[in-house]
Amino acid sequence: MAAFARGAPLDRVVSVEAWSRPALDLDRPATLVALVHRRRPDLVIHTAAWTDVDACAREPEAALRRNGEATAALARACGENGTDLLYLSTNEVFDGRRTDGRPYEEDDSVAPANPYGRSKRAGEEAVLAIYGQARGDDAARGWIVRTAWLYGPPGTDFPAKIVAAAARAATEGTALRLVADEVGSPTRAADLAAAIVDLVRARPASGIYHLVNAGHASRAAWAETVLREIGLRVPVERVPAATWQRASTAPLWGVLGTRRAAELGILLRDWRAALFDELPRYRELAAEAQRGLEAGGAVAGSGRSAEHANGAPR
Ligand SMILES: NC(=O)c1ccc[n+]([C@@H]2O[C@H](COP(=O)([O-])OP(=O)(O)OC[C@H]3O[C@@H](n4cnc5c(N)ncnc54)[C@H](OP(=O)(O)O)[C@@H]3O)[C@@H](O)[C@H]2O)c1
Q1: Do residue 52 and residue 191 come from a single domain?
Q2: Which of 2, 31, 264, 270 has CA 20 to 30 A from 194's CA?
Q3: What's the CA-to-centroid distance between 258 and ligand 1, angstroms?
Q4: At what angle do helices 158-172 and 219-230 cross, to 10 degrees?
Q5: 296 Ramachandran zone, left/alpha/beta (phi>0; psi -120 to 50)
Q6: DSSP E strands: which ranges in the chain?
Q7: Are residues 111 and 167 in the same domain?
Q8: Is 260 inside a domain boundary?
Q9: Does the predicted TM-score (pTM) go above 0.85?
Q10: Confidence of residue 250 (pLDDT cuts 50, 70, 90)
């Protein structure tokens, strides 16, 4: 969560604060309210969430509390304070059953297929309820930014898991199994951050905006592109997502359309061009994994089998 103190527009921002635990605790919504009333920011960018989708499925009430109720409390406090709020949400508010090949647009009907998606949707509804009625240039704005399939430092993201699993498969002489029927919009976190800055600068009407890199790919195609570009060769077996039983059900079609952002002149580049900028990190991770395996140790940062390589957080 980042909060911007008074002094907007963005190029004249006077200070930026990063709020995190223990001062900001999603299990204690009052902490979010207290921060807003004490610091009185012009803008809050709410990124904190419980993103472990399988754990959310096992504990849906905790998911709703952390992602839904905490967001509602924050939105109320921001609304009372006249603070703009940008809430980061997810493609998982859609069930992903669409088969017509079209992306989900901002005004398509939502139907979350899992407790994580339901909890994020509860946060969206709170923002829409509080900011939906506000009118006029002076009114505070509430934006919901849906994104998908994020990757980038410092986390153990999907490509990093794939690199670790591929290095192990190559050493063991086994095939790497990749999910071929889950399709989405791989999005580089740094590209998303730049687009969020553009959106805040444009200060459009309150509402929903999709921000993802352009184009789409299956998990398998995304993984194969990374492995090819970093020169890690390993036999691949393409399998359906249903191969693995998980507590949470991932939407099979998670592609988002970015029409509203495009109308503001905010255009994210193709996912392959964005991925290119992260390749040095994945090359380094592959070399590190190789060294670890040659020394007979575990692969750094993975600790997972290839079976879990598709289990990236949303
Ligand atoms: N990753 C994706 O592919 C994706 C896709 C669509 C939307 N999103 C959304 O984007 C946002 C960021 O996602 P991410 O993947 O970067 O998530 P992440 O790596 O799991 O980070 C989540 C952040 O929330 C904080 N957090 C978790 N539980 C908390 C609690 N109880 N109290 C206070 N802070 C808590 C974490 O703090 P600690 O570091 O202290 O744990 C961490 O800073 C989320 O809103 C998510 O729903 C992500």
Answers
A1: yes
A2: 31
A3: 22
A4: 70
A5: left
A6: 2-4, 16-18, 43-46, 84-90, 142-147, 150-151, 176-179, 183-184, 187-188, 207-210, 217-218, 236-239, 253-254
A7: no
A8: no
A9: yes
A10: very high
Give the confidence band of 236 by pLDDT, cuts at 50, 70, 90.
very high
Report the 10 Å Cβ neighbour count for 272: 16
DSSP class of residue 150 equals E
Task: Say how far residue 75 (Cα) sits from the centre of its chain.
Answer: 20
Can you give the residue range of the structural domain that contains 110?
A: 2-148+185-210
Calpha distance 138→287 (Å, rounded): 53
* Size of the chain, expressed as the number of residues it contains: 314
- 258: nearest Cα among 173, 185, 182, 188: 185
To test the ligand 1 pocket, which listed residue (33, 45, 51, 104) has its Cβ within 8 A of the most ligand atoms? Answer: 51
Beta strand 43-46 pairing with 84-90:
parallel
Residue 305 alpha carbon to ligand 1 centre in Å:
23
Q: Can you tell me the distance from the alpha carbon of 215 to that of 259, in angstroms, rounded to the nearest whole number?
A: 13
Structure tokens that stand for 124 in this block: 């969206």
Asked whether residue 189 falls in the same domain as residue 245, the answer is no
Q: pLDDT band for 132, please (50, 70, 90 cuts).
A: confident
Dist. CA 286–CA 281, nearest whole Å: 9
- Residue 168 Cβ inside 6 Å of ligand 1? The answer reads no
Do 97 and 85 share a structural domain?
A: yes
Q: In 3-state terms, what secondary structure has residue 145?
A: strand
**Distance, CA of 258 to CA of 146 (rounded, Å):** 10
Candidates 199, 183, 301; CA nearest to 251 is: 183
**Token pair of 243, please?**
């191969």
